[in-house]
Here is the input.
Amino acid sequence: MNKNRTVRVPTPLQGFVALVSLLIFGLPAQAASPATSTGYEAREDVRVFIDDLSRREGFDPADLSRLFATVERQDGILKAIARPAEAKPWYEYREIFLTPSRIEGGARFYAEHRESLERASKEYGVDPEVIVAIIGVETLYGTRTGKQRVLDALTTLGFDYEPRKMFFRKELEEFLLLSREESMDPPMVKGSYAGAMGIGQFIPSSYRAYAVDFDGDGKRDLWNPDDAIGSVANYFSRHGWRNGETVTVPASVTGVGHRKLVEKGTKPAIPSESLKKAGVVVEGVDLNGHKVALLEYESSGDEKEFWVGFHNFYVITRYNRSQLYAMAVHQLSEEIARTVEASQKGEKE
Here is the structure.
């Protein structure tokens, strides 16, 4: 189990928080956290949430109330979510992920977990370097899985982040259900500021829907590299990944007729004939019969670069909707594959 999820040496406990973990989630008292009421349990919107969840899913409302008394509002999370990395221009965003250390780290991760990656690729039909690239972008191969208590993060966002509070409130419900199903101690689970968990950073609803017990030990543990590899592969498979198919290719653009095509987004819905009419040129690739997306990126200053995205590019955006993210994952996967291939070639010589 990853150290970000396992229980540290306990401090003396207040009894009611230990009782919450024992009654709600079936966990031993020593796994609970010290309790300090911060007011969430007394808020009317939280009370409505507790009563509704208890009625539908069989939780004890008094136990949930005691659990929410331990939640600490995280103002830093509210600030962080207002300035995501995806707001950067491409030429700055790319520099975060396409670094020699991340590429070399991906090759090492590939070598260390080759058996699991090859098995996942065979079972789910997903290119192994793509699985590695996702894990590399998300958590630097498991070294940065997050330091926020997921309970604090999702409660803060679910009740104090107006733009998406209903989304995060639903994820909070999913997290409580997940904790019960997987015998997690909610106050001890740590993840990102948005409540994503494990090496592949699954939000609770994705964890429940797509995580798999890939190492066969009876637990879906996304802090475990084997389970994380299988779960990322399963996620991509369930969203329609096509093993070995082209993800994206560069394009050149003349005139201004391409603008409406760019605005159509990342879903491949543009007939190849429309690209030609708009002055979009792709060299060395036969696009006849394909529907694609036209992607625009800021390469530096006022300069733009254009790419044609295929089905698999869209699938990457199902993991994270940002086309910056999808391109970073794709380009990192290509660099990892080249590094792995060169290493294997050197070993044979």
Q: What stands out?
A: Residues 262 and 294 are 5 Å apart (CA to CA). Residues 1-23, 27-37 have pLDDT under 50 and may be disordered. Residues 323-348 form the longest helix (26 residues). The beta strands are 148-149, 190-191, 248-253, 270-271, 280-281, 291-300, 303-309.
